[in-house]
Design brief:
The structure is a homodimer. The first copy, chain A, contains twelve helices and 15 strands. By secondary structure, chain A is an alpha+beta fold. In chain A, helix 2 crosses helix 3. The first copy, chain A, folds into two domains: about 270 residues, L-amino peptidase D-ALA esterase/amidase (4-Layer Sandwich); about 120 residues, Ubiquitin-like (UB roll) (Roll). Chain A has a six-stranded mixed sheet. A five-stranded mixed sheet of chain A has the order 3-9-8-7-6, with helices on both faces. The N terminus of chain A is likely disordered. Chain A is globular, with a radius of gyration of 22 Å. At the A-B interface, helix 10, helix 11, strand 13 and helix 12 of A face helix 10, helix 11, strand 13 and helix 12 of B.
Chain lengths: ~400, ~400
């Protein structure tokens, strides 16, 4: 049974992480970004509960803040998340790890000074930006102090935090849903290096539902599996991917596991769609749906192989219904196939039937910004979709002139 | 022990498939290409031997000529190879396979009419071009007849055949080496859809060495493993990849397996370098060398993961020594790593030592057209290299406007 979609409301949506009761947030400009834009964000859980769960990058090269946050999450408790843009603090060695530790210590001490008693072991840290440089701690720590000072609920706090984590993002990304008796909200950043294992991004989610860490963890993993894990812009997975879910229990309502998972999934799905829409240089937003697979995992594997194929992606940029490239990409998926059973459609327009071109296939109109690519394998009943984008001049331009 | 490199000679090199004794070739314009350029090629082995070996695409979606040629190669004998550009004859169903069969039949019958007795089962067929359309047989078969008429040895035949298989290639690609007592030559086509499982291309190699099909097969597989299989321009593997090696025995010289493998490898290496140099839209020619791996296969896996990373490739296009993206790509390779042992250099200039940025890393000069990217894993003694290119505006331009 599919649970009913939670009602959405723009006012709630635009509060993001502060939509749920028990949370405050802030975003300040600490001078990490040359532009002078906001670059330090803080999300604080005022309780009464402090349960938390996290999912992290599968990249073996993990940034210092990922190593730190994985460690503190083993307790299933978080009071705060401090985030910075303007530097990933990845590949920075033991010194970089000490910087993350110092950031958590400073956050905890400053919060305690303002009346929220906490220790560094209850503070997660997230960083995003260029890989390889140490963070300017002389700017970051005063920024954290200011972020504590600026903490606010309602519209302002969530919005400022969402802006402070932006890198090449052009818009802040927030979402929230009010479910029956509780609320889930969140923000996300990410515009490039977007691939599986979490679509290279930072996401902080909050809920006022009453739920222990294990329940939050199960809901978060299931939500990520079907949303962020199925967004693949360029096949590149970052060193810093982090998705956190904090529960305050402030609603005093205990949803069922299914209700909580549905609400968290709805927020993640909304944020994933926003990440795709803002992907670097993208001119097309493409949903690749593979049906007729033996298993859901095989459907995902085929869709992901097509989503990563440079020739399919450049054809989409050119609005070219080049279904032969789709077949060639499908044929390289790590799944046993029957090529003469494969059907392909663009936006419901059949271009390939039984592995052979359909009449009028070259005339399919792909000029729209949103494209649905449907691939039926004829092997079973499983279906899955991957969200991706085209490979455009804008992507090449933006990514050939990022660091220097 | 590395065998000595065979001597090369431009006159020999420019004969390509007709450099070895016992071979004739031709290229004609049959009207398959709208441009009116050459589009049908023929290579004939006049013996006395007719041993042959082939290696084909690993794509599960295989073009009709691949299915045909794999079948005829099971005998280890070939008299002729007929090739066409202007259409891949892939995803064309049973009708497309009948077209390939008819092409082989017509080639055999025409050759027999000119005194070279052969049957269709001794004729391999290769096709390249757009996937999904049937070939215009009313043009192709007369073209085959003309190609038989035009067969020639020496400089002319090999050169015309090499030109007739070009698609988006800008130059014909030929190579040949004179070893001790025998010669190996060949041509190649391929400029896009270049990836492992043979770098999406057609290659015909010839030798006048005396060698049976099993010896040719072993030499060809070893040569492909270290040359074409380590060229990865865009990660896309075609439906039509074919590499054939034909032996005439006309030199009456029987080389050792090592001598034959060395000569075939030298020709394949030369052709692979030419394929990289002519890759669609490439502005950089990059060799990624991974050392310190536990096994050669693991070294290849790491190098290939980096070679396919869009963010590494766009950084190279921008001459940006963004070693953080290299580390992030390495971290996603399907190999167990120790991130804090990884060193990275560009052209011998260290940019990352022990997983951390080296002093002056951002100043590495990548403005040259040829770039060497060296990655040392610190895990073992195995080394391997992959040839690749950058991801440029030219690649996007060429591939967003190919079929329509």
């Amino acid at each position: 049974m599919t649970p009913p979609a939670p009602a959405r409301d723009d006012l709630v949506r635009n509060q993001g992480v502060t939509a749920a009761a028990g949370f405050k947030a802030s975003g300040v400009a600490a001078g990490l970004k040359a532009s002078g834009n906001l670059d330090v964000a803080l999300v604080v859980n005022e309780g009464p509960d402090h349960a938390a769960a996290g999912v992290f990058t599968r990249n073996q090269v993990k940034a210092a803040p990922v190593l730190w946050s994985q460690q503190v999450l083993t307790t299933g408790r978080l009071r705060a998340v401090v985030l910075n843009s303007g530097g990933a603090n990845a590949c920075t060695g033991p010194g970089g790890f000490q910087d993350t530790h110092a950031t958590a210590e400073h956050t905890a001490a400053t919060l305690s000074g303002w009346g929220t008693g906490t220790g560094a072991a209850e503070v997660a840290v997230c960083s995003t930006g260029l890989i390889g440089d140490r963070l300017p701690m002389d700017k970051l720590l005063p920024g954290v102090s200011e972020a504590v000072h600026e903490l606010a609920g309602g519209l302002g706090g969530g919005f400022d935090a969402a802006r402070a984590v932006m890198t090449t993002d052009t818009v802040p990304k927030q979402a929230a849903v009010q479910a029956d008796g509780f609320t889930v909200g969140g923000f996300a950043k990410g515009a490039g290096m977007l691939a599986p294992s979490l679509a290279t991004m930072l996401v902080v989610l909050t809920t006022d539902a009453v739920a222990d860490a294990a329940v939050l963890d199960a809901a978060l993993r299931e939500a990520c599996r079907t949303t962020f894990d199925r967004l693949d812009v360029d096949g590149a997975t970052s060193t810093n991917d982090t998705v956190l879910l904090l529960g305050s229990g402030a609603s005093e309502h205990t949803p069922t596991a299914g209700e909580l998972t549905a609400a968290v999934t709805a927020v993640c799905d909304d944020l994933a769609a926003q990440l795709m829409a803002d992907a670097e240089g993208a001119t097309k937003h493409v949903t690749i749906t593979v049906s007729g697979a033996r298993t859901e995992d095989e459907a995902v594997a085929v869709a992901r192989t097509v989503a990563r194929d440079s020739l399919v992606k450049t054809a989409l940029f050119g609005s070219d219904p080049n279904w032969g490239r789709v077949l060639a990409a499908v044929g390289m998926a790590p799944v046993a196939l029957e090529p003469d059973r494969i059907d392909v459609s663009f936006d419901g327009h059949p271009v390939c039937l039984g592995g052979v071109g359909a009449p009028g296939a070259r005339e399919a109109d792909l000029s729209a910004e949103r494209i649905s690519l449907e691939i039926a394998l004829g092997l079973g009943d499983a279906t899955a979709s991957i969200r991706t984008t085209d490979l455009s001049h804008g992507y090449v331009e933006e990514n050939s002139a990022y660091s220097s």
